[in-house]
Amino acid sequence: MVSLPALALVGFLGGVQVLETALDALNLRYGARAVRDAAEWVRTALDVDDPETMLSYQRSKTVLSRLQSWLAIVALLGVVVSGVYGDIAFALSETGLPSVAQGVLLLAGAILAGRVLSIPFDAYETFVVEERFGFNNQTLALWLRDLLVGTVVALAFGGIVAAAVLAAVAALPTLWPVAGWALVVAFSLSVMIVYPRVIAPLFNDFEPIADGDLREAVEDVFERAGFACEQIYEMDASRRSSHSNAYFVGFGRAKRVVLFDTLIEQMDREAIQAVLAHELAHWKKAHIWKQVAASAVQMAVVFAFLWWVTTSQWVYTAFGLPAETYAALGIGLLYAGPVLTLSAPLTNKLSLAHEREADDFAAETMGGADAMTRALRTLAGENLSNPFPHPAYAAFHLTHPPIPERIRRLREEYGAHGSDDGEGGDVPAGDDAPGVPPAT
């Protein structure tokens, strides 16, 4: 007979999936109406020849992602509710291995199972969806290499974190949540240093911006922004995809700005400068540290919850677990995951504020909004991003404001010269576009 806590877990995880599926459907319908009503702006400002292509891409990605999520949830609940998870935990507890090793093996098995489950979806996304819309540049050999290297990295880092936390459990039976929280925060900080220097180069080549027009443009924007010119790299993203992006990572001497080679190819120099200024703002405005602090608070709540779960006898009885903390931690994380999903609107607000602040910094650095708005339009058009997400969907999923909102706000705050290369006139939003009802 299935226990009440197990039924509650099914209802909780299943309910969150139903919510996510409803948000997906709402977002697709809302975006489709808005794009069609603003089709001329999409063609002119975003340089998308056929807006229906943008909609089709979004549908394909959304449906595939949600199908994968449902399959993962069904498989996960099947393993836990059926008692298989408890049987595996009991088998590990009888191996004679130290408890830390047992927990690491359990996590490694979960990582490998997740990877195997994702293989057909990742392959379909890369070689069917991305290929159909002209984004994929990967060969099968490169895709397989990424799969293997990514799995090894996940196992290595997951094993390190699990071993450290479980060692804290063994050494500090009453204080391990505090020690575990401190270890996870310290690990997160160390990853910010290790990732750009060790992990990212396993997948891509990073070349410092060389002398020439681009280097001069980079030095110019650094001078305007009040930075010393260092750690600016071009990444060979085009080996895998024609999608474009840029990001800031690290701190101290390990901090660096990375520009995709596809972005450099797609944008004019001033637009690239605006993107660079936007990324520099995340360091200048201390966004990195604010995000770290917010994440630390979030992790403190998670560890407090895990402490309650692992010290509650019901979890061991309800799920047929051995008296091993690592077994209860696995169940606790299943409950914690949906809670983080439901709290996303709160955590996303901080990121949204940071992105707006970074947009402002870019506009101020560039002496106006034109360069940044051109960059935003290029990013949206070249990546076929949905410019009009439903507000409810955006609240749960978007860490950046919608592109039209960002453009409109920049133009209102900093003005725009002339027609801005075809963008002239009011920038439409989903709830402003003709025929689209107000957001609910």
Automatic annotation (TrEMBL):
Record-annotated membrane-spanning stretches: 6-26, 69-93, 99-117, 147-172, 178-195, 292-310, 325-346
UniProt GO BP: CAAX-box protein processing
Basic and acidic residues composition-biased segments: 410-420
Chain segments carrying region Disordered: 410-440
The CAAX prenyl protease 1 N-terminal domain, residue ranges: 43-204
Cofactor: Zn(2+)
Source organism, top-level taxon: Archaea
Keyword entries, A-Z: Hydrolase, Membrane, Metal-binding, Metalloprotease, Protease, Transmembrane, Transmembrane helix, Zinc
Residue ranges of every copy of the Peptidase M48 domain listed in the record: 210-413
Binding site for Zn(2+): H278, H282, E355
Annotated cofactor note: Binds 1 zinc ion per subunit.
Active site: E279, D359
GO terms of molecular function: metal ion binding; metalloendopeptidase activity
Pfam families: Peptidase_M48, Peptidase_M48_N
Family from the record: Belongs to the peptidase M48 family.
Record's protein name: STE24 endopeptidase
